[in-house]
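Page 37, top half.
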Amino acid sequence: MRQLVERMAAIPNLHGPVRLEIQQDANLAANIDTDWQQTLRRELEKRRLNITEEAGAPLLRIGLAETPTQVVLAASIHVADRDEVRLVSVPRVTLRAADLPVVPMRIERQLVYESADRILDASSLSSAAGGEIALLAYRSGELIVLRLNTSGEVTHTFELPVESAHASRDPRGELNVQANEAEILLPGKSCKFTWAAASEAKCHSAKTVWRGAAILAPPCDAGEWKLLAEGGDWTTVDMLQIVPAGAARNGSAPLLSDFPGPILNINGQDSSSSALVVTRNVRTGNYEVYKIMLACGN
């Protein structure tokens, strides 16, 4: 607000007093209080631009509006036969969460891998790996881990000697990668290995605690969003739901995205900006892995 008033005070031949008219976006009015208007008046008075109700005084219009990524302050006034306009924009991420109106967002998704092998889970590697991902799959009664480059091409295949997974009628597993070490969670068992010695995976009995819902933090919203899916019926398509995490905010509607089959696993553990979704396409029978992101704007 001070920046805006400073730019107004620098307008040639502008002197007080002025009449003040404030215009505010309806959505912002419902979500942001009027404290900023009092700040505006104080800053104007500091620069001898006093407020008056006299009809002959120049009319100063102040507007407050929003874009998907910014809050914009605008000032306009007619001085010496010219219309003068000054603008100041503020990134939304710098504002307190309680002050933010609901941000328009959309789901963006990218198919990164498709295979006839039964894919159980997908995990992003560390940022140092340049965006590579790893897949946990089930092939001919054996567990395997595939490492993919950023183009979705398999660069390494690791066979894991996990006896309890052999010939399982309903295999289930989760893959979690931390730096150079990876962990596989199976029913009642945990197995750890390194990329350099995947064939020497060390397994031990453990109470399996499956991961909770994936959480995303989009760049234009101070809140967090939770990814949910039913995934119970293997014969029908599924719906990915992205809903506000924690206390619901006014106007925050779920984001929905159709998938070509049941959603089997969602992993957003290694990134706050994206998640990996595993699904089985009911039309082709293939397993597919998608990268999911939240983007700003409708």
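Page 37, bottom half:
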Amino acid sequence: MGSILEHYRILGVSVGAGLSDVTSSYRRLCRIHHPDVNQDPESVELMKKINIAYSYLRDKLRREMAFQQRQSYPRPSRRYAGFDTRFDSRKTNAETETQARSALNAYFQALNACDYSGAYVYLSSYDKHHISRESFIEWRKSVARLYPMRDFIIFGGRAAVSVTFGDGKSYQTYKFSTEITEEDINEGKIQSGTITKTVIFENGLWRVFLGYKGVVDLTRGFDERFETRRKRDIARRWEEYYTGLYPEYDMLNAAGLRKAASREIYRQKRFGGSLTFTVIAVKAGNDKGNGQDELLRSAARTIAGALRETDVPAYVGDGVFAVLFVELRKKNAGDIIERLIQKIRRNAGPQLGQIAGVDYDISSWTSQRPADIDSMNKVFRKFGKKM
């Protein structure tokens, strides 16, 4: 019992707290103690304890919720076990809801097991008419690359208004709330969110109704998550700048570069195109004093000004800059880098420009040979850096 109390104490919640309170407290502690935010060496060990406490209490509370749900719904009779093949108005609401819930549970079980073809089977005829099996599988694979599902729990359940398709037929529906736990690859943490799903009764079977009108509609919500994250990252830039680098240069640190690169790598794998990664090393000869400082500031101003709103620049430190060119061929990127180097020397002034040492390396990837973080790190390590 002492260990359970310790978990509650670490998360700062009372023993009677519910799952929403535990999750809110966990997210608040992550924003304070996560190593990406808190530079205190003890934050790593503290985050481990926080993660262990949250995992334990989350699973404990979910088991309790699932048990309460099972107790509140009677088991369906043998006649109606599994999917019903013929809607019977004499069945109780509890029996009908249980069967609808089982269909949604089977759908999420397939998603959680990465059986996307199996999940497609549980979709309504409306969704299958507008979205092909291949498009659905590709979409789910794209989601799983950055947000792999770890767990889910279905709760609630209410009769909804009938759904009418293009053929004019109306279908009986149920709506359920589903809490999904997934891993955020970019942020490196586990997160939970609640969504609402509709299940309809058609052709004697319960089917999951997504309501997508096509591939664009299918991917819109996922793309909006990227846009939301982009705006949030911009708002957090102040925390990511290195000491002495002015924020108007709009430069990231190594962690910001990795996040930006992960986003563009995903887009390249999904939509094709080319990526070119360039690392530029700038040093003021043997002068390690003020001259080096001035040269680095000049290089930062030059690179940020030239690439603002077009590509993804990133300031790494110690005179090493990294740039990720999107939809740009290696040859064109090489020309741009040459002009940048000339501009860096010119902006640094005659004295610093003459003693400035500039070295760079370029690597390019296409849709036939997609990029990944490891392939970019091979270029980066030549200059003693790592994303």
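Margin note: The CA atoms of residues 164 and 319 lie 62 Å apart.
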